[in-house]
Amino acid sequence: MCLFLVAAIALFGGSLQMYLGQPTTTPRLDNVHRFLAGVYLSAGLISAWAAWTVQTQKVLVYLIALAVFNAAIGRLISISIVGLPEPAAVWIGYLLPELIIPIVILIAQTFRNRES
């Protein structure tokens, strides 16, 4: 279920950010933003495939969990350097699942691999 959740978030977020871009910025930053939105969207497709085929997956699931956790670390570094964006509750709402879901995926995948 966590992989399907990651997939849904990345598919929606990647599509939305690809469409919206980075308003009120320079062309360079908008270009980078939309490029990373494409990476985010693609990560959603990979996560959906991994979730659909989870019974046959091993390392890929761990790599997806690592990617989500690294994204959370990126948010934490940003918050420590430039501060928490407003509204703070929204950004904390993004951060907490990004820290928790990888741990749940790690535990679930480890137990699943031990059973098989």
Provide structural commentary.
This protein has 116 residues and is mainly α. Helix content is 84%, strand content 0%. It has helices at 2-20, 27-52, 59-82, 88-115. The longest helix has 28 residues, at 88-115. The radius of gyration is 15 Å and the shape is globular. The model has no long low-confidence stretch (mean pLDDT 93).
Mean pLDDT across residues:
93
- Percentage of helical residues? over 70%
**Amino-to-carboxy terminus distance:** 19 Å
The radius of gyration is 15 Å
Judged by helices, strands and strand pairing, the structural class is: mainly alpha
Main attributes?
mainly alpha; 0% strand
List the helices and strands and how they pair.
Blueprint: H1 2-20, H2 27-52, H3 59-82, H4 88-115
Helix pairs in contact: 1-2, 3-4
Give the structure's gist in a few sentences.
The protein has 116 residues and is mainly α. It has four helices and no strands. Helix content is 84%, strand content 0%.
